[in-house]
Amino acid sequence: MSAYLPILTMLVLGILFIAASFLASTLLGPRRSNAAKRAAYECGIVPEVSPSERFPVKFYLVAIAFIILDVEIIFLYPFSTVLRALGGYGLSVMGIFLLVLLVPFGYLLSVGALSWGATKQVVVSVGEVLREARRGPAELPGAPVEEEAA
């Protein structure tokens, strides 16, 4: 237990420093609100005109999903270099790792979090074309109707 005492001490000191910083900013900080504080802040650029709509949260969700998948790839690379040494156990552990990270990605796909804008319109129009192709040429609107010989 005494081997972990320095780590515990650093953890307690870090938490105390964070709590003291928040308390000091709350007590000592100015409480005046103005237009500059209420303005949207993105990338350090001061907006010249007011935006017509708020920035959609979907962009941030896509960015977070992208980062998660990048981290997954970063962990897959070293695994692939030592796959033979790990054997079946390593393969099963990496399968669980992939499953844990791909299930949320599948959820994002299923709820349509990644289908928006022009891509969504293309997917919808392709789906309509495929449905019409399944109906057959005789059922298409404007298609000539073949008459049966009596």
Written overview of the protein:
By secondary structure, the chain is mainly alpha-helical. The protein has a domain at 54-139: NADH:ubiquinone/plastoquinone oxidoreductase, chain 3 (Methane Monooxygenase Hydroxylase, Chain G, domain 1). It is 66% helix and 0% strand. The chain contains 5 helices and no strands. It has helices at residues 5-28, 35-38, 57-81, 83-110, 118-135. Helix 3 runs antiparallel to helix 4 (83-110). The radius of gyration is 29 Å and the shape is flat.
In short:
The chain is mostly helical.
Order of helices and strands: HHHHH
Unreliable residue stretches: none
In DSSP terms (H or I, runs of 4 or more residues), the helix count works out at 5
Sheet/helix structural class: mainly alpha
Tally of DSSP β-strands: 0
Task: Give me the CATH architecture of the domain at 54-139, please.
Answer: Up-down Bundle
Amino-to-carboxy terminus distance: 98 Å
Per the principal axes of the C-alpha atoms, what is the gross shape? flat
- CATH-assigned fold name of the domain at 54-139: Methane Monooxygenase Hydroxylase, Chain G, domain 1
Strand fraction equals: under 5%
Protein topology:
Layout: H1 5-28, H2 35-38, H3 57-81, H4 83-110, H5 118-135
Helix pairs in contact: 3-4
Descriptive keywords:
Methane Monooxygenase Hydroxylase, Chain G, domain 1, 150 residues, 66% helix, 0% strand, mainly alpha
